[in-house]
Design a protein that fits this description.
Four copies of one chain form a homotetramer. In chain A, β3, α5 and β4 form a beta-alpha-beta unit. The first copy, chain A, has 13 helices and 13 strands. In chain A, α8 runs parallel beside α10. The two termini of chain A are about 25 Å apart. The first copy, chain A, is of the alpha/beta class. Chain A has a six-stranded mixed beta sheet. Chains in contact: A-B, A-C, A-D, B-C, B-D, C-D. Chains B and D meet through loops of B and loops of D.
């Protein structure tokens, strides 16, 4: 599923060209159009339909002049392959969870923790061959930390409680059986509560030198659920803030938030956070694709229902799980790395 | 919708007999089977199909020897009718929200605040004619306070944060348009966040003499959402507790909870709270009808995913919104009132 | 709902400009952005948000220099308004069913029965003031007759049996209650079976002079159902053909079908029918928007699962109910009328 | 999925006792409650939870005194196992499709073709060891032939056209991925169109002596689709009849239909066909469980929307796919075989 979104998002990318498609032994050896059951809205890009799916072989990648790899591998494959490939000099932008919590691997979101990219200097491969791994966050974490960042900056965060309404596409394909979710909610997503907690604290943590990251000192209590929505993770958040604040100031913190590191990145949205003031927004179906310009569709996080309760701020957020929370996030990271000369 | 559940739940009730069906002018004057689009699973009870729907006229009620009224009126009608009917001596068990927050009206849940029934002594009608109003809580509040009660008793409550996944049936009929909710979540239910906060604090508050209730001194931050489920409100809860506790003790508080006031009430579930230890329960589809014996199906609240985070307890709960949270709740209240000789 | 699709489809139309929005008394008098709950994917066009919604007053239309009207009126309003407006000289392209079966009103689909436009010469208003009414077909009929036309031309039609799987949007807004359709099929759509029968025979009928139409001499047995899909009516069709045929020839009839009358119309799809040879297509979600160029998205009918059974041909078709079956159809009709100098 | 329905339907069966649960090597060797993800509404019967799942071994079956086997094996396993088990003397009532079209195996529906049971006399195993295979029809076929039978008897059938709206549970578990079916229809079910055609003609065919069956001499054109419904296959049918008929006579044919062979079978519904005269019935959600007495819930086929079009009769039918169309059908067959002394 995420692989398909990579394919779609890299079509006509101004900086990157999709040169090679690779897969593990089981899947390699045919034509992309035959191997893949296309699930993304719209049709499979014509240019990709007849491309061969090659085996995961560094020599083949090099033969094609490839140095930048986007990884949508399952966790176990990512664990086996990403480090060795980095050691061969490949620059890996990974959506896999396998290496995210490694001390020398950043979970990078340019709008939030651009400085964490320095962690890659601690990767042995970086020095040896120039190769490295940069990960993006879990889809649920991504929307959350983008929304929390301006609150942390202006008011300080004491703790965070989040409940989620996660889309079916987050489970990949075939993913959730229809008999389980039809007219139902599944109140559990394996390891998800923990990922949201750990990743959020790492991303919002501080880093000195080559790291490691000093995690942010607050708790994140996450209660994750699956709902019968196609795309877009909705989250309700209650954040206890450290400083006094008023509701209007919190709303401004969201809507004024900008990313200076992203100014010229093709996939960066003009506004990382779009504040909705209608009582019944954001909604997955209506707000999932928020983000401008066109190349950044789905890259903005929508925030709404902002309300102050004493020292706590309640709000809802919505972000596109396979764009902002997966393929788009990796591509944005690669764009950012490029502006720093890391490619 | 709630009226239909009253009809269904009163079929073969051992203590009560459905003698009269009444509606406001607009709907009165025909046969129940013609006026109602039956929406409850199973068929309309045969005995009710040909019953006339009478106008709301105290004289007619008296002619039929009726003194006990169940009210599923819309809020504005309830406001106009319930007090005057109580003043004529009728005992009103109301699911309407109109009078819930009145100082002399209890929001009664026998398992939780049986003692609040004394509030009716402050109703002028009680003294004048013996009539009174007893309400049950909003459907979302009901499940929440039942689950909070044993925590409050054993550990004390400091504050409560709740996010909801509410079923379509909670919006009545025709209710939510399918174009709004199909493959979507609606992140807003009018006035619901506030009801959950206010009602919870009233129900868990203390009362002396004839009241009024001293509301419980903690906050409830409620974030209410509608999901595409037919029956069963799921809620994720984080409660900050006052005393030290361990996770196992909290789980026991749930599963050991019993209602002594309810011992012989036909509609009372043997276990008000059913603790689920599977990682992926409770689920609306699977657990909505929890409750034994048969007459109490749908009257138990299912609790699961219990986890301690420092001084906070996280858990999920599920309760049947039209049974436990509406018709069943009113009927249980009437049963309880009867054991006290109030009918 | 259809009004919104008109607004969306007329944005940036090369020939037409949306000058005036009008509604019946009840709705007129405010700003479009306030009066309308936007339901179409994407946002309301900015240029329209602040446009006033004017009353249905011919004088106002004339003051704005308007002569061409698109009508998405409910049937009773259409009956009351369309003829009188035509008599004042307005050219009315109507999606309403009210006048479709009138002998002097064409149900026009340029790909199918372009010649039926001559019926307007029989409208008294045409002679008196130049005004007339042209309707498009019911959404279900539209896809059906487009698919039947090449079969009729090449093989002759003996009879037609169709079963439908119709999208929620076809019922307008609020439309189908979610409690009715959630995890269900509704096996009935009021008057729909009859509309499909009558309209199909009229559209595929013959006309001489100013008409009226001699209906096609075959039966259409239609069994219409509503399913929980947002956009796109799927239909299974069994057509008994008059001449011998083979399966491949039938498939070619579909894929070779072109519309000469439409050659330069902006909203006409290059291919009225797109033949799918995969076993599991067309699907509402994947094929609803078929049609090129961009302005004709949703204007092609997708046909698949073509199979011969003796003298009968079985196939499935899918067409976008609010584009091909409503707003897009009316706009295409106006474009066609313009090329003939009728505007 | 079907296995679970067998377990549920055999709970408290008056004639049969569930003695042994068996599975192929892959699944055997544990406790039923651990191996099975219970998907049927309500809870797993307590008596079954701790039963071991044994390997498919005739010796084990014999040790337990078992001679009657219900088979819910996948097609390939059924092909490998059912004949050899029959040859060891087991009486096999199979829901698998593997042997249905074998000339010496009946597809038995007591209401429709009770006489076809004689086919088992042609099975070599019957003579050698007393063992035999009796199958029930595909879930879609079952409802169809029950509704066609009284038409065939009274009016003769010339041909049949059927379109289906099939429930998710028909695809087993995990079955249809939610990403495929959410807000969609899947217009294809592998081999289903053909099964409906072939099985219908066999079941409605004639048999002399030990068979084989002379298939009924008419065509069945089936167009099968999957919709997002949990239980209950809806079908729209157009049957061309041989004799003159009027609509009312056809309706009587449905509602008067009775099964004499079934008079005392515990799982037989009093009325095989329930005629609905409301315009919007049958509906999967409301009518799926039709059937009385309680043990026969889900065993009646609901028919509605009956209308005459010349020599063709159009109607809709609904039947419970895992009860009437699977487990219930096999159990009814075993009950019938028992009354004939075949067990």
């Amino acid at each position: 599923m995420v692989g398909q979104w990579f394919v779609r998002s890299l079509e006509d990318h101004p900086w990157f060209e999709l040169e090679v498609l690779a897969a593990s032994e089981r899947s390699a050896g045919g034509i992309y159009g035959d191997l893949v059951r296309w699930n993304v809205d719209g049709s499979m890009p014509a240019a990709i339909r007849n491309k061969p799916v090659l085996p995961m072989d560094p020599a083949i990648f090099s033969d094609h002049g490839v140095r930048l790899l986007f990884s949508a591998l399952p966790a176990d494959r990512a664990l086996a392959w990403e480090r060795p490939l980095a050691e061969k000099g490949f620059r890996i932008f990974s959506n896999a969870s396998a290496n995210r919590m490694e001390p020398d691997v950043p979970i990078l979101i340019p709008e939030v923790n651009a400085g964490h990219i320095c962690l890659i200097e601690a990767q042995r491969s970086k020095k040896d061959s120039g190769g490295y791994i940069i990960t993006n966050a879990n889809c649920t974490t991504t929307g959350l930390v983008i929304a929390l960042k301006p609150l942390q900056d202006r008011f300080g965060l004491h703790n965070v409680i989040v409940s989620t309404y996660q889309a079916l596409s987050g489970a990949g394909y075939p993913g959730v059986p229809s008999m389980d979710i039809s007219a139902n909610v599944i109140p559990y997503i394996e390891k998800e509560d923990e990922k949201v907690d750990n990743e959020t604290r790492k991303i919002l943590g501080t880093v000195a030198g080559k790291g490691p990251v000093q995690p942010a000192p607050f708790d994140v209590v996450a209660s994750c659920c699956r709902v019968a929505v196609r795309y877009g993770h909705l989250e309700t958040v209650v954040a206890q803030l450290e400083k006094d604040f008023d509701e209007r100031a919190a709303m401004s913190a969201f809507s004024d938030f900008r990313c200076h590191a992203c100014a010229k990145l093709p996939t960066a949205p003009r506004q990382p956070i779009i504040l909705r003031e209608e009582p019944d927004r954001p909604q997955p179906r209506l707000d999932c694709d928020a983000g401008a310009p066109d190349r950044a569709r789905g890259m903005s996080v929508s925030v709404g229902r902002v309300k102050k309760f004493g020292d706590r701020l309640r709000f809802y957020l919505l972000s596109h799980n396979t764009v902002r929370g997966a393929a788009g996030a990796s591509i944005l990271n690669a764009e950012y790395a490029r502006t720093l000369g890391y490619l």
